[in-house]
């Protein structure tokens, strides 16, 4: 089983845009799935227009007509029903590999994480749905549908620009959780795109697996040192207790406050995101090398 034709849906988002860029540089033939009413344009990339409601039969036919081998989903992970429709369409359309919108800061396979952050349960629902599909036989000798879920930790370079890693880079402030000396996993956006390509190149080794990767395995104090070295400035240090902060913001999150949800993700993605000892940690399997922290910081500062 080999992958030739890859389709991506969600190609303009925070992850989708760099994923598109990485796939365009790869050896795979690339298509974009684009909803009928979408105003997104993709110069130089073939586009498959699909119904806004992702009608399963229509999407399946489009995937079959274009002989799509792999479907990469980078829409919001909270869009559970849309992902189920895409999975059903992939099954009917003869797709060999689906990668759901698992990517992100926290581990949806961790019971404590789902308790702290109910948002993650949707990702588990989608993965459980893929598990329920993986042994189903398809008509016409199409083989079985396979999947790979990829957990990446915080989007590291993006997270430095928007406070996700608990740094206000422009304001020269560092919000250090529990002393700032907790090791956590995070991945630059380009690295994630390359990880996906490696997965599609290693189909047997990555079949029906939940995998973890990181391009940075650092503490906040190490990030702070890199920022201070690159800027020549001392950052104001604000010490925070993660448990106290979660007790403040979780009630707001549970009440529907979007900013509070982002804050819970930011905190939990630092204090509970060490992938190095996870069973599915796959940097070595995929041949991925970590990025240089100082270089990442320099690139982020240049972009601000």
From TrEMBL:
The keyword Acetylation does not apply. The keyword Protein biosynthesis does not apply. It holds the Pfam family NmrA. InterPro entries: NAD(P)-bd_dom_sf (IPR036291), NmrA-like (IPR008030), NmrA/Isoflavone_reductase-like (IPR051609), PCBER-like (IPR045312). GO terms for molecular function: oxidoreductase activity. Residues 5-132 form the NmrA-like domain. Keywords: NADP, Oxidoreductase. Gene3D superfamilies: NAD(P)-binding Rossmann-like Domain, UDP-galactose 4-epimerase, domain 1. SUPFAM superfamilies: NAD(P)-binding Rossmann-fold domains (SSF51735). This is NAD(P)-binding protein. It comes from Dothidotthia symphoricarpi CBS 119687. The lineage of its organism: Eukaryota, Fungi, Dikarya, Ascomycota, Pezizomycotina.
